[in-house]
Amino acid sequence: MAPGQFDDIVEKGKIVFCDADYEQDPYNSGAEGFVAMTTDPDDDAADSYTLPTALVTYDQAKELAQYLRDSPEPVAKIMKSEGVFDAEAPVVASFSSRGPNLLNPGILKVP
Which InterPro entries does the UniProt entry name for this protein (predicted)? Predict the structure, then answer.
């Protein structure tokens, strides 16, 4: 979709579902939230969005699209996220600086 094409299809106060990252247009059109299909579910980059946003995998996007087609009045809600502290995590984000350094184990953490 080209910039501005959401203006005619977005109802103000609704959540927009899109198969690509068009977040700015729904925001400008008055949407309250945004659901987008991510092309790389293993990407752990920290992204920032203007609207409350949920990223879904291809399979989840197919299920959501089917629900939207089958439901006469589909309902959606994006919940506020919660921080989890003191939890054991088997994987850390690639941008984390948690040590030790793989090249030099003597370096515990790189700022």
Answer: Peptidase_S8/S53_dom_sf, SBT
Instruction: Rounding to the nearest 10 degrees, give the CA dihedral for residues 61, 47, 90, 78.
Output: -50
What's the pTM?
0.61
Q: CA torsion, points 53, 58, 64, 70, in degrees to nearest 10?
A: 150
Return the closest-CA partner of residue 55 out of 40, 65, 70.
40
Query: Tokens 């996220």 identify what position?
Result: 81
Tokens 């790389």 found at: 40
Rounded Cα gap, residues 9 and 26, in angstroms: 10
Interacting residues of 91 by C-beta distance below 8 A, sequence separation 6+ = none
Which residues lie across from 60 on neighbouring strands? none
SS3 29: helix
Cα four-point dihedral sign 60, 63, 67, 68: positive
